[in-house]
Amino acid sequence: MIETFTIPPVLGLAIAAAATVGAISCGYQSMAPTGQWFGRAFCGDPNRSKQIALTFDDGPNDPHTLRLLDVLSRHNVKATFFLIGKYVRQRPDIALEIAQRGHVIGNHTFTHPLLIFASAKDMRDEIKQCRDALHDAVGEHSNLFRPPWGGRRPGTFRIVRELGLEPVMWNITGYDWNAHCAEFIQQKVAPKIRGGDVVLLHDGGYKVFGADRSGTVEAVDHLLIQYRGRFEFTTISEMIRRKSL
Fold this sequence. Notes:
By secondary structure, the chain is an alpha/beta fold. It has helices spanning 9-29, 64-74, 85-90, 92-100, 120-138, 156-162, 182-189, 214-226, 236-243; strands at 51-59, 80-83, 104-107, 144-145, 166-167, 172-173, 197-202, 232-234. Helices cover 42% and strands 13% of the residues. β4, α6 and β5 (166-167) form a beta-alpha-beta unit. The longest helix is centred in the first third of the chain and has 21 residues, at 9-29. 40% of the residues are buried.
């Protein structure tokens, strides 16, 4: 006679609950900027308490990338720009202007897909196409990579590193992708700055070239005035270099 085993109702509920919690946790980690479950990524260095790295996604963009460059130049600040390859193809002159002004340029894929749902081949193609566009526009550039929306799954950052790139996330965001006013963006960033932070902002928009980022430009100007002398604004490359010393 074959004995059957019946899972007690309470145990079944516990297993189901644990599975639900695990699925929610995995979903959170796939998008959480400081999460490390799915691979190590640089998202700041609290030991560098006087450093702040401003980063800008989704450019190049006309005219707001150029206006942002003027603001950064006025404050003598260098930043890190994660560029979308298709926009680099459209306006290589703006990408080149970013590089010529001494800022760091990183890879943000070619079309800005959510990599959680992309095949390994598509991931590689997106990164390589962006790398080629950047090389054609500016020549030598950094090995930094930021996934669109921060989205990744197990294996994503392994592919990124196989292609010679270093994943970069963030720990503060200005929530400026919906073209909020400068005051809103400042209120999202300023209270969280402690030092060693990587701040996510946007000089462009992945949906369309020419996205309005006037609020971001103004907010950056105000933040640099507010924190002038209190923090050192630097690039991701420099922050990583100093961390390794």
